[in-house]
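In the current project phase, work has continued on tokenised descriptions of protein folds. One protein thus recorded appears below exactly as we store it.

——
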Amino acid sequence: MKWRNGSLRRRLIIWLLIPLLVISSLMLLEVRSNAVRSTNQAFDRALLSSALAIADRVVLIGGKIEVDVPYVALEMLTSSAEDRVFYQVGTIQGEFITGYEDLPPVPEALLPLRENPVFYDAVYNGENVRIGALSRYVASVRKATRFQVLVAETMGTRTSLSEDILASAAARQIALIVIAAVIVWFGIGQGLKPLTRLEEALNRRSPTDLRPIEHDVPNEVRHLVGAINHLFQRLGNSLATMQRFTADAAHQLRTPLAALRTQSELGLREDDPEKLHQIMATIATSTQQTSHLANQLLASARAAPEGLAGRPFEKIDLCDITRTVTASKVMTAIESGIDLGYEGITEPTMIMGNATLIEELLKNLVHNALTYCPEGSAVTVRLEDDVVRNSVTLTVEDNGPGIPSKYHKDVFKRFYRIAENGEDGCGLGLSIVREIALRHHTTVKLTKPDDHNGCVFTVQFERADAVSDTSA
């Protein structure tokens, strides 16, 4: 199992134990250092007492130093059977007087010896020893000289005591870590119970239950629950879009498909070539209308919030899209005897939006104009700057028969058709335009030209820099 897929509890325990182990190791190093220092301080007092006892027995007779070593002073250091004691008395100039002549001398860093004693570690006869050294004056009537006393002790007892202190501290640290791990293990289990209850609640839900999660959860999980609720909302919108598309398709396609089937069956029984040609022409027209209806249904699904084309908005060039779509409709306009043209902005005009949906909006507006305008009409696609509002206005204007004012609000409804115009539309084009405009946080307006009949559809988009400034 990969680390990122492992148990959350196990990961938390590991992340807790690793720092604890590191901190405990550092603490044990400090304990070891303190144990050695404390042990040395305690045992060094005994070394100093022995050295002082020996120094007190040094006398100067006839110009010669003599020492009567009190063995009681050495016996106080040999209370442990595993340790041995060594001593040396000599002059400050290095002349040996008595004791063990080969004891390690005082290191250069501690020389010259003064009144205060010094202590240092060394190796003597293959064993680690601790040595205490002091210097004193001895005088007679005619002479005075300085001597030094070295007293050494093997470090067996010191080492054992330090190790015992360290082992005791290590045992306490290990016990603390184990207890902390157990407490955290069960504590995390208690802390994760709200998530377990949340899991159980989600498991009880039906596949279509996309209501927001309202369970009490820890603060650290609220953002995750919020993201899940946002996902539920988007899934609900997508499901609603799919259900609406399915219902619309089932309702709207049933009749034309039944008509196609009827015409096909009539054609199979017809022997007259002329009537058969008429039936095939009717089938071709119905097929074209059904294909257009299916395309409009798909466009409507894409235009709906979180629809089939619910991609995030990005910077797009509205001028380029407008001129491209207008150019693509020129041949259709020529075939219908309609003058289709573009005027207005020619430089790049950036807005935040979905290029596919903007193309669909403009195609529907131009298609409606070309469909309902008679031969000889003019259709103009216009893109204009609105400096005051820092926006751009897209306009599709024609001089056709127009739409009566009483229908202006109804034409944007789904599947609404004006019976008076005599055209067999599906009633989705302007509804798609309205939904796409709403998705881009704007509206589509229908007005009548001032100087002639016809329709004027306008949609206003904020420029991309204005949207960025508002978001910031």
